[in-house]
Amino acid sequence: MSDIEQQLGDLARIGTVASVDHAARTCTVETGDIVTGPLPWMAVRAGRMTIWSPPSVGEQVLLICPEGDTEAGIILPGLYSDDNPAPSDSADEVVIAFEDGARLSYDMAAHGLSATLPEGGTVDLEADGGIRIKGDVSVEGTIRATGLIKSDDDVWAENISLKHHGHGAPLPWSE
């Protein structure tokens, strides 16, 4: 093989992440009998909107090497493999799947957004301006509130209407 063929062959290599330095935003890649030095990986987005999704040890990647120089390489993460298969094979789904079993998905054909957390998972929403939900809400479990609960219509509990079941005293939030 000529020198030019060797350089062309080294421009892009398939490899596996050997180590990750999250603070430095670099990782090393094992490709063939070579383990690179620390190299940057390409982010999904790194402009006005950023997404932090670092590569994982064992993840298959594409190593792009300008002029065939693996020490000047850039890592393109995200090649599916037998060890790290795709979380879906649907043309209509966008899925983010996490190692602990958490999963976010949107099905464009069914118009359904789903978030599933592993046992013991929690969700925190913070919005000083408020949270608005348009549509029916179904809750399984207990609802706790530390502030006032108001309704523009009625509140029912076991077939008893709060609006039509009075005891003569004005309600504290009556206007």
Give an account of the 3D structure.
With 175 residues, the chain is mainly beta. It has a domain at 3-77: Gp5 N-terminal domain (OB fold (Dihydrolipoamide Acetyltransferase, E2P), Beta Barrel), CATH 2.40.50. It has one helix at residues 3-9; strands at 12-21, 26-31, 34-35, 39-40, 60-64, 74-79, 93-97, 103-107, 112-116, 156-157, 160-161. Strands 1, 2, 3, 4, 5 and 6 form a six-stranded antiparallel β-sheet that branches. A three-stranded antiparallel β-sheet has the order 7-8-9, with no helix packed on it. Strand 10 (156-157) and strand 11 form a beta hairpin. The mean pLDDT is 90.
Describe the structure concisely:
This protein is mostly beta strands.
Give a topology summary.
Blueprint (H helix, E strand, L loop, with lengths): L2 H7 L2 E10 L4 E6 L2 E2 L3 E2 L19 E5 L9 E6 L13 E5 L5 E5 L4 E5 L39 E2 L2 E2 L14
Antiparallel strand pairs: 1-2, 1-5, 2-3, 2-4, 5-6, 7-8, 8-9, 10-11
Tell the overall outline: elongated
Count every beta strand, where a strand is a DSSP E run of 2 or more residues: 11
The CATH class of the domain at 3-77 is identified as: Mainly Beta
CATH architecture of the domain at 3-77: Beta Barrel
CATH homologous superfamily of the domain at 3-77, by name? Gp5 N-terminal domain
Estimated radius of gyration? 27 Å
The SSE string, one letter per element, is HEEEEEEEEEEE
Distance between the termini: 88 Å
Number of helices: 1
Please mark out the parts with pLDDT under 50 across 5 or more consecutive residues, or reply none.
none
Pfam family, one: Phage_base_V
Protein name: Baseplate assembly protein
InterPro entries: Gp5/Vgr_OB, GpV/Gp45, Vgr_OB-fold_dom_sf
Organism: Sphingobium cloacae
